[in-house]
Amino acid sequence: MTERDLRLAREAQQGDRDAFRRLLSDHYTMMYRVAYRFTGHAQDAEDITQDICMQMAHKLESFKGDSSFSTWLYRVVVNACRDFHKTRSTRRTLAQTYLEMEKRDIADSQDSSRKVAWLYRMIAGLEESLRETALLVLAEDLSHAEAAKILGCAESTVSWRMHEVRKLLKQRVSTYP
Question: What would the 3-class secondary structure string for 110-158 be?
Fold first, then answer.
């Protein structure tokens, strides 16, 4: 089989498609078997073996005949399995990182929601002119000048009211859950 493999490998390197097909056909079972033993999963072994088959024409260029074809092919399969494990490990790490970020985002969002709810409860407890001013400036993101026009007062009045709102919120921050 070694002489036949060497001949087929040389012919495949020179572009003989039939020789290439016979090499793959002769060694497909071995490639799958080794990949399966390294991964322990049929689908992973099939994926690795298919990847090797698709890259084999290019990989054959590196076969020099210093060792038997089967020894060279075993190295190709083992390296493909190593690459697969590295890639899978990297994907797992990325997936784990993504899940952790997602959990943090959810926690941050929940914390932000709690803070906003607390802020609205505190604003709701303010006297009317302060509450209206705070809602326009904080919730609607209007400038002091815009809020003054809407409320029919001076911009300086809006600035004073916002100062009072901040002062009262600072006093009430101890009631934040």
Answer: HHHHHHHHHHHHHHHCCCHHHHHHHHHHHHCCCCHHHHHHHHCCCHHHH
